[in-house]
Every structure is written in C-alpha cells, then in structure tokens.
Amino acid sequence: MSQLQFKAGRLFRDGSTNWVRPDLRSGTCFLKSIGSGAVRLRWVADSAGEGDESNEFVFFAGDASASRVSQSPRHHVIVIKSKSTSTRLFFWPQEPLERIEDLINRQLEGAADYDDDEVYQQGLALGDVLSAENVAAVLLDADVRRGLGETLPKEIPSESPRDLDRVVRSPQFRQALAALSLALDEGQLAGVVAQLGLEPRAGSSVAAFLEAVAEQMEMEMEE
Amino acid sequence: MSNENGNWCLIESDPGVFTELIHNMGVRDVQVEELYSLDSDTLRAMEPVYGLIFLFKWQDQTSSQSGPNQSRVSSGVVVDNNDVFFAQQIIQNACATQAILSILLNRESELELGETLTNFRSFASDLPPDMRGLALTNCDQIREVHNSFVRPESFLTDPDEPRRPAGEDDDLFHFISYVPVNGRLYELDGLRRGPVDHGESEDWLERVGAVIQQRMGEYKEGEIRFNLMAVIGDRRKMLSEQITSVDRDISRLMTELEKLRLGESKDVGDVESRIAGLNSERAELEHLVDMENGKFARYRFDNSLRKLNFIPFVYQLARAMAEKGVLEPAVEKAKEKAKNRPRQQRPAM
Description:
Chain B: GO terms for molecular function: cysteine-type deubiquitinase activity. Chain B: Keywords: Hydrolase, Protease, Thiol protease, Ubl conjugation pathway. The complex is a heterodimer. Chain A is of the alpha+beta class. Helix content of chain A is 39%, strand content 23%. In chain B, helix 9 runs antiparallel to helix 10. The relative contact order of chain B is 0.16.
C-alpha cells in the first residue's frame, strides 16, 4: 500500500485554547494506508532519540481531512482533523501547502477506496486459528502443558488438558486474541516480534506472524 | 497531549473486579454483588448493604449525548449537604472506582477503610465537590489499584491519543451510587453539582428500588442497558457468624435434651425436632459458604487472566501447534472462515 512522506515541523495546541505553538524540531511526516480503511500517520523528529514520545495516529477513511489553516496564512500551517474525535494535528510543511494538502487528502481518501469487506476477508483472526478445538490435540502433550504453564501466573492451574482448556476458552483469552490480531495487522508489535527472535516481517500481519513462528520451529527442529 | 492527572484506564464492570479493587485499596470485609432484582427481600438477604451502584450503558452514541444532565432529575433535589461525601467526576475512566468510593466514604463509621482511604477522606473532606473529584484523580495509591486491572494489550496503543473510534465507547458508560446518610437516601451522580436528596427514609432498602425504577423509566426502551451492583458486607464472615450462632443454639438444646431425657419428659421429641431443624439450617449455611468459596476462586482465576500479558502464551501455543503439524491446517481453516465472514467488528480494547 502506498505511503506519503514529507518534511514538516509540528505544532501543538496550547492547552485547551485554540492557539498553536510550534515544536522547534524539524521532522518527517509519514502517512500509510494500513488496510481496513485506516491510515496511519507517524511524525518522527529528525533529532528523535530513544524513548521519545510516540507521535502516531490512526485515521479512518472518510473520518479525517486536511486543510490549510486560514488564520495563519503567513505561517504555512496545515491541520488534519478527525470528524469523530477531537484529534487535531497541526503541521508546518517545508513544501508548498496546496500540494501537501492535496496529497494528504488523497492519501486519507485513498483509504476509502479499499473495500472494507475485501480487506477484512483476507485478515486472519488469531482467535480462529487458536480456537479451543484447534488446540485441543496439542494440550494432550504434558511437555506442551508445562511450557504453557510457565507463561501463566500461579493462580492459574495448568496440570491437566482440562485446566488449559479452561484458559483457552476464557473470555479474557479470546479478548486478548482479538486485540493482538488487530495490533499485529496494524504493525504495532514490531518490538514484541523482535523479542521473540522472529524476523521483522512477522510483525506485519497475523498470517505473517504465524508463518514466522512455523518457520522458526522448523529451523529449530532441523538443528 | 499527556494528561497531568495521569492515566486512568477503563476497567471492566464486574463484581469480581470491584471486589478485588476494594480489597486492594485496603478496605476489609466488603464485597460487591451483581443484583438481578430490586425487591427489598433480595436486598435484605444481603445485609449489611452499604450502597448500590447503578450502571448505565447507552446503546448508541447519539442518545448518550442527551445523557444525564440537571434537567433529568425527576425526583429528589440536588442539595448542598456537607454531611454527604460527594465528589464530581473529573475523569471518565475513573467513574467505576469513584462510584465505589462514593459509597465506602459515606459509610466510613461502619467500615474498616484502611489507611489509603482514611487518609484520602480526611484530606478531601474540606474540599468542594469539584476539588474532591480532582483530588481523587490525583491520588496515586487509588489510581495504582484501579490501573492494576488494565488489560495488558491496551498498552500496545498510545493511551494519550484516541487511536480508534472504539475509544468513544468509554463515554457510553455512566455510574450512579445510592447510599443512605443520616437516615436520608442520596443519589450520588458525579456529573451533577451535588448529591440528590431522595428524602428521609428509615428503611432505605425499601425505598431505593422505587427510586431506581423511576430513574430507569426516564429512558426509552432499548435506549440503555442497566446493571445494578450492591456493595455489601463480607458474605463468608456473615455466614460464619450465623453458623457460630446456630452451633450455640444446638449445643444449648443438646444440654436441655439430656436433662429432659433424664427426667423422661414428653418434650424430648419436640426438642429433637428443633435440633434436627437447626442441623439442616447449618448444612444450608455450609453450602452457601462453599458457594462463596467457589465464587472467590473464580474471581482469582478471572482477575489473574485479566491482568495477564498473553503474548508468551500465544507464542508457545502457536509453536506447539507448529511442532505437532496442526498449525498450517488450522490457518487454512481460519482463512476459509475469514473469507465467509461478512464483516468483522473491530474488537473493543
């Protein structure tokens, strides 16, 4: 999916007023369609060090648009507004405003061109893969149960297949799977994936994650 | 933009969550029960009842915007009464905790509040309602306990920015507490400017049902969903006191029975049947204790899963499936299923 990138400074709203104040650092703005009718916007300061605050936002198709701020013609400011939330992001592009405005809007509208159903239909849900039925067979293995038990707190019994069946059927686990599926598809688990020793690609979608886990397992078994 | 009051995360409205929350704040011998009936007999069976929490969930966004406001007071009067500990709601996500505290802090004479809440109460008592709300949202100890119930996945997203419209779902909840103070029934709604006085009521458990029913009647059918919870005394403690008392009666009757038998009295049969009655009462109480123990075991189980970061578990499980050769077929099956799924809802976090 396409990505838009432009050099721009950022401005912040001053408290709850309508005044904006510039962040004095220069930086780059990235807009990327991430499927499901969503566009991710990320602003990275050129001088960004580790631990810098996250500057990442997700907009949904039809919900956001960019416009020039008329109150500050001299100041060359563009605002991206969400209709459904109070989010207002102000940027200070280093290129002609009309062009940037047009490009941002095309990117934001472009997200609408993806048919929602189509995108979702291809999306794999962890919950469907790790269903209680699909995992039942592996829970019969005592070594597997021991390995899983190590990831659980002591309040959760994991001795018998039945104990673990209770965990995989719990609403907490099902909710976690739904949240993790979404996070994987939105590319938010890059750090986690790296920690698990999986290649970066594994953090791009549920399908890629599961493929990478299978490949990793295969390599370990060959060794 | 970061929030100067720190982040209060949305927690699940569940009796197990609320019960542990209260316990972790240092309050002893209190638990929270979901109510399925408003009649006074149901309430009386739970005594001591310290207060009720009425939870609204609007079914759609538009109706929540016309939500609770001053004009919706159909009974009772908003009052300025310093005997009542009332705090205005500052942070939406803190509202469940605030509703619970509204009850506990008004029943402090009967409760063992613990250090955190005792200190908070004495500090906040002299403040006006809006400052009390602010003091509450700024109280680190209370916030820490509240936030310990946050689902770990919610950290995957930036809590300071509304990343997804699902965040708006938060606004669909509202909590109101009902609590008796000095013989009057009060409605504590953090969105109003003061407590709502529902009048003198010797027996508030008799009165509160009607007040809540009237409140429910203000909404069109299907407009909102209700949930009612009661903050009550520790059931197991109550039951064990009842068992002790039954045991005392039994042993008294046993002594009496021995005497009667010696005197070959004709009352022997009567006392024997009273003892039998007490024994079956005792068995019933023991059964209730077992049920409470089972419930608390379930709370522990659910709450520790609520707080769990499932990523290592998911990883291990997927690895085990790959090792046994069942991952690939499961993925294929799931892809088929995804194809036939009309439209997936975005999961709420």
